[in-house]
Amino acid sequence: MASAKQHRFFIFVVLGLLSAIGPFSIDMYLPGFDAIAASLHTSVAHIQLSLTSFFIGIASGQIIYGPLLDRFGRKPPLVVGLAIYIAASAGCALTNAADNLILYRFVQALGSCGGMVASRAMVRDFFGPTESARIFSLLMLIIGISPILAPTVGSFVMAHWDWHGIFLILAVMATGILLIVIFFLPESKGSNPGISLMPKPVVQSYWQVFRNRQFYSYAFAGGLASSGLYAYLAGSPYVMMTLYGLDEKQYGLVFALIASALIAASQLNRYLLRTLRSEKVAKTALLIQSSIGVALAALSVTGLINLYVMVALIFLFLGSQGFVFPNTSALALAPFSRLAGSASALLGSLQMGCGAVTSALVSYLHNGTAVPMTGMMAGCASLSLLILLLGSPRPAGSHPGQSRR
């Protein structure tokens, strides 16, 4: 029994590391935006496009990985993705042009999304639908720690080296994860020659997933809610460091404080699921999040906000996200078994696609204030709530403690 528990814990840790690749890639270089812009002789708004290109890469790449994971099993596409990520990270570290950085970040994302898709599909493989919401909550602990560690590590690298070192460290980290995957991670689902990789069957598989009402309701709701987080990621370097005058280390500390809300909420979610259904928790959290988002945007528009109020409201906003993400993800994936890889890919693609649009809009609407960031955060949360209130079905077996029929 102890051996079995240790085995499950090891699998969970590896899946957590795979899930953390994306957040680390997003957050670790944020404290270096000003330095990168100066080094590459461009503006911070232009460097923000490297974040947008990363989101676009993840959104598009996951569509490719889904059928590959269902056809060849989980590990082979995962290994290829990690190799691509390592090569692109080295390219980011060695580039001397902003446009090249934007391109390499896109390729880096194509590699990283393999880990994100595979980890979600493996949760479904190893733990099944009845445990998946709790496992997603546990993964949020690792994903939540990433935004705390990543900017802190990035700030330390900036203080003792330069921004090139950030991408070299990402390459080294991914190399370690790749070796663990190759030699220690068990395959969770064998290859299935019956899954065709021809365009028509692939599109049909995705359409079969997408037309499921439970999937599209919770996938879009979760994707829009996550977009509020990505709006914060895109806008916070300018808002915190330029508008409020924080230095790189102070920004890292504020980022860590705000991220801690995500961690605490995702773990509290595990206990709430013992007595409450996932859809109930998600709707309640979105109601709170949208209210906080509207208040944040209104105070930004009127100028009646300072650094402390801004941080407090964003803390509560992202705390709500800790309840939304694990529940909407589990509910979206619950109806699928044979097409779990495709469902996971489509879910991630929708989430990151929304994030790419949101981060691009924050950059495009840049006007020297916090309004583009806070306005997008409020809009995303409100639209997500509207989707759940108007369109979500009552999922069968959505209580993690109950068996699906």
How does this structure look, described?
The chain is mainly alpha-helical and 405 residues long. The radius of gyration is 20 Å and the shape is globular. The C terminus is likely disordered. It has one domain: Growth Hormone, Chain: A.
Which terms would index this structure?
Growth Hormone, Chain: A, Multidrug effflux MFS transporter, MFS, 405 residues, 82% helix, disordered C terminus, 0% strand, 13 helices, single chain, globular, mainly alpha
The residue fraction in helices comes out at: over 70%
Major sheet details: none
Number of domains: 1
Shape annotation: globular
- The number of distinct helices, counting runs of at least 4 residues, comes to 13
Mean of pLDDT: 85
The radius of gyration is: 20 Å
Order of helices and strands: HHHHHHHHHHHHH
- CATH topology, anyone? Growth Hormone, Chain: A
DSSP E strands, number? 0
Write a short abstract of this structure.
By secondary structure, the protein is an all-alpha fold. The chain contains 13 helices and no strands. It has one domain: Up-down Bundle (Growth Hormone, Chain: A), CATH 1.20.1250.20.
Topology:
Elements (H helix, E strand, L loop, with lengths): L1 H26 L5 H7 L4 H29 L2 H20 L3 H63 L2 H21 L15 H12 L2 H31 L4 H25 L5 H25 L4 H27 L6 H25 L6 H21 L14
Helix pairs in contact: 1-5, 1-6, 2-3, 3-4, 3-5, 3-12, 4-5, 4-6, 5-9, 5-11, 5-12, 8-11, 8-12, 8-13, 9-11, 10-11, 10-13
Membrane topology: Multi-pass membrane protein
Protein name: Multidrug effflux MFS transporter
Pfam families: MFS_1
